[in-house]
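Limitations
The structure tokens in this dataset are predictions for the assembled complex, not deposited experimental models. Users should treat interface geometry with appropriate caution, especially where small molecules or nucleic acid strands are included. An illustrative entry is reproduced here so readers can see what is and is not provided.
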Amino acid sequence: MVLIQNLKFSYGKQAVFNNVNLQLESGKIYGLLGQNGVGKTTLLKIISGFLKVGKDECTVKGYSPFERSPLFLENVIFVPEDFIAPDTIVNDYAKFRGEFYPKYDSNKFGRLMNDFEVNGNYKFNKLSYGQQKKALIAFALSTNTNLILLDEPSNGLDIPSKSQLRKVVSEASTDDSCIIISTHQVRDLENLIDPIIILDKNGVLLNESIERISQKLLFSFASIPDNSALYNESTPGGYISVRKNESDMETRVNIEALFNTTLKNRTKISELFGKY
Amino acid sequence: MKNTFDINRFYKLFKKEFKERIPLILKYAAIFSLILVGIWLTSLLINKNMRVPMDVRIVYISFSVFLAMIMAPFSLYKDYNHSKKGLDYSSLPASVLEKYISMVLMSLIIMPLIIIASILFTDSFIALLSPQYFTGYLLNETFFESISQKSFAEIFILPSMFLFGNLIYRKNKVLKTILTTLGIYLIITIVLSFILLYVFKDQMAVIADAMEGKTKFSIDLRNMYDLYNSEFLAGYPGIRFTVGLFALLYSIGLPVGSLAGSYYRMKTIQY
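Predicted assembly:
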């Protein structure tokens, strides 16, 4: 679906990506993680065609995103983190834009708006930030595009909406679609995102399925830190430890601990999983 | 071809644009019409001897349309190059050419036409109510005769530059566009003046003597074609060619360049 090869990108003299390689496949919900400023939003914007890169450095189903051809655009939808609402009634917004997406389902939009408890008869600017975001997510998922890019989708959502978000995103995932979610709120999206991509300033640190991560790493909880572990994290009541999995046992992946482990053990993680 | 232009998709886009932007266009049309109503009320209530002849109203409508055309890109498409607000329109599955044509139509044709229609309707209504103050109807043959081919072409020069300015500049668009436009006019005038006064120095001295007492020689970009056709330049092909070249640059080069630049900018803009 998405092929990124030797991607280089910079804002003026500030390099963001230098020879990044990534392959994203259909039928998966990717979680894109990284510290502030490593280029998560930039990557999503490059894939969406908002930023210019070399012709073969990023392709989506064979299309060069920056050409912004209609046939490419009708297969991609991007939900930005900061959505500045237009002065339009939500239902009109969806109706007029939906016509451009061949697989747009207006019934699905109505159902999702209902699930999110947002009234589409109001103008965007009459809704709260969280409601605006839910309306936009509902529209994005109703377009049924093959590539859905969500930048921090759970920001600004209340607790019931976050679980609702997990449900609707999970339902939106099909064998033909690829969903990429950039997030800092890993706990909001745990049990949803798989595989996990971790970015840092040097590129992709990790791009693995949950299954492979649990084969390679062991996540445990104990009252004292494990000195042989790659990473120990103090939590109320004990320590979460992450170490190499040298047994056949598979444990539940704690994404937050995985993220911190990866950042603190770049070389070891690279040796364990290989380079990207 | 379907990727560059598709008539069905263009229709959908134009329909969407029209429906979303018509409230704003009507608001502007109402403002321009209300100004006319204000003039009428002033003559009716305050200065009962004041007449508003047709000539004055034609000047008003010309000024309003010109102002509307200049304002249109900034009011209808101000967010196109905004790093956040622009994402919505840019990601809409229509080609850049379709978005561009739609933008040009809405800014340079639809909005001015609706404003003209609104002013003409208001004027006719007032003229019908109180013909003693608003003498004659604007909507007559004189009005259409006043729209010559030349003025019709000239009216697009500045708005096309403003359309381009709206896409180039992200902040303080109006001010920067006005300053750039003034700068371009100044540069063209200075370069032409330099060529005429230094390159064709001797010939210009002869022309100045011939013109003395008859007319004043001035370089006005808006009247370059008149200068080109002037009898004083008949025997000076070099000067005539230069003046003609600058007349073309002003009346065709600037609008075509601005429109082509706007398209290129839309195609290459990053967010």
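Some entries come with short summary sentences. For this one: Chain A has ten helices and twelve strands.
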